[in-house]
Amino acid sequence: MSGSINKVILVGNLGSDPEVRRLNSGEPVVTLSVATSESWRDKNTGDKKERTEWHRVVIFNEHLAKVAEQYLRKGSKVYVEGQLQTRKWQDQSGQDKYTTEVVLQKYRGDLQMLDAPKMDDKQSGYNIEADAQLAHEPANAPGLDDDLPF
């Protein structure tokens, strides 16, 4: 059917560290467990209620998989944009099972970190703020002054 859209947007927190696997080709595939929560007040009792949904996110996009593997950890807040897919598989007893996932395909989808990246000990020397500042500085900035040329 033309004119249809399959797009899922999630903003939530990781319930565990990313799970990284490698395909036979060596390309990474990352699985995330993302929690989204909503809260409300019960009309009858006035009590605060909350419901959490868990979403399985699978990343086939190599660049986004590397970002997830390197910077995301349990508790990281993320923005995820992908497609909803259901796949069929069989358990050990031969029973058909179905799993619904948000999938970020090889050249599609989006993953954004909404808080500061969580670093491994081996990466603790990485200065995100300094890198961000350098990324926004023009290459010829040291020779500039405040005088206008006209």
Automatic annotation (TrEMBL):
Pfam families referenced in this protein's UniProt entry, alphabetically: SSB (PF00436)
Assembly and binders: Homotetramer.
Gene3D superfamilies linked to this entry: Nucleic acid-binding proteins (2.40.50.140)
Residue ranges flagged as DNA-binding region: 54-60
Entry keyword annotation includes DNA damage: yes
Protein name (database record): Single-stranded DNA-binding protein
PROSITE patterns: SSB
Region annotated Disordered, chain positions: 118-150
